[in-house]
Amino acid sequence: MSGAVAHRKGGLATRLAQALALGVVFLMMLAATHVAPATASALPTVAAVGFLLLAGTLLSELLETIGLPHLSGYLLAGIIGGPHLLHLVDHDTVERLSPVNTLALALIALGGGAELRVQTVRAVGRSIGYAIFLQSAIGMVTLTCVFLALSRFVPFTQGLALSGLISVALLWGTLGVSRSPSACLGVLSQTRAKGPLATCSLAHVMASDVVVVVLMACVIVAVRPVMSGGGVSVDDLRDLGHEIVGSIAVGTTLGLVLAAYLRLVGGNLLLVLLGLGFGLTEFMRYIHIDPLLSFLTAGFVVQNLTLQGDKLLHAVEQTSGVVFTVFFATAGAHLDLPLLRQLWPIALALCSARALVVVTTSRWASKLANDEPVLRRWGWSPLISQAGLTLGLSVVIVRAFPEFGEGFRSLVIACVALNEMVGPVLFKLALDRSGETRHTAAVEPAH
Questions:
Q1: What is the separation, in whole angstroms, between the first and last Cα of the chain?
Q2: How many CA atoms does the CB half-sphere of 83 hold within 13 Å?
Q3: Based on the domain organization, do 40 and 113 belong to the same domain?
């Protein structure tokens, strides 16, 4: 979706037409899945993609009139049409849409890396350094203690010894440091915000998630002996080093190859990005390389070591509009509403504690770094959201600790659901209040 389309100001007639079109889309899917239920199981996946794309786009345009970000519309479309409400998209179809998530995360990391210019990182390096250090240290300790205090209300921790309980709490505290690059980039893509908050937000979120990937790997290595009763394995440490160093090396190579292609060929970029997002991601997982870190490194290399950064960003923006819409709509359909109803009290308490830590440490870091007023007031706003990376790390925990992993992941999903619905709204509100979205009223020049 182009910026001009995303930001157009529709009148009452336009909004009524969009509401009518949205109703027609839902009625057509209802007819296909309920009036003629025999066809529901045979409904092709492409129909689900079309529904999520249309419903998400229309609903996001309608919610824009009350100041909500487009991401809220995408999520809400998936929730309403998903398996737990209207059943327009069933569980099997949602699972078949998982390749869209793979492509979206690859584009998010590649675009995020390309947005990290060295001069920008230098300009906000002091602020980001203080913030990441305080949030990683104080955040991990505080959220670990909060989880321990609430553990008697958490079903999957019952029966664990104190050492095991501390291990689970430490995993939770580490996961609480994770952010959502997809939510940050989604809001920035919609608003085209320009200013210190927008600049610092993206650099902060991307740098923070690089740190949390490394932290989680280290914590898993540290707590695994406690849970199994064994010692620290040299193989685990070697595998950890291989994954981190290997991911950066593969990403650097990929960035140089991609830059050479952009300079010498430059055509069919859509097909190239699709091939990278789908094929290369699976290959990286097969050789135990972290795709997110690799694509992030590749984007950073193209932007800062070559002259092809702007061309890469333009290609990613052209590709990501439709992909982001389906990605977040699918995320909404993935939300387990019955589970959320069951775990919402404990999830709400944990999310509230995390939000309090984020706001407190962010303002403290801004004061230490002597940031400008807009960062002191709103620097915390892009850090509330959690999405794909958090869920991906929860899957890693399930595989590493099957004895409690499924229950742990269920609570993660409930917390991500809350943070995913609230975080983007707060970030857009901050950008609006700081005045960094005012220029978007102007029409973008054609590319």
A1: 13
A2: 15
A3: no
User: How many separate domains does the chain show?
Assistant: 2
Token pair listed for 200: 């610092």
- Write the DSSP symbol of residue 179: -
CB 407 within 8 A of CB 155: yes
Q: What is the pTM of this model?
A: 0.72
Nearest to 206 by CA among 383, 399, 3: 383
Q: 178 in helix, strand or coil?
A: coil
Count Cβ atoms within 10 A of the Cβ of residue 336 and give its class: 0-12 exposed, 13-18 middle, 19 or more buried: middle
pLDDT digits (tens, 9 = 90+) for 363-402: 999 888 888 888 889 989 999 988 767 876 777 787 778 8
pLDDT at 240 over 70: no
Asked whether residue 446 is assigned to any structural domain, the reply reads no
Looking up residue 363, the CATH number of its domain turns out to be 1.20.1530.20
Give the structural domain span for 245. Answer: 101-441
Residue at a domain's end among 65, 96, 127: 96
Smallest CA-to-CA distance from 200 within 408, 53, 387, 372 is with 372
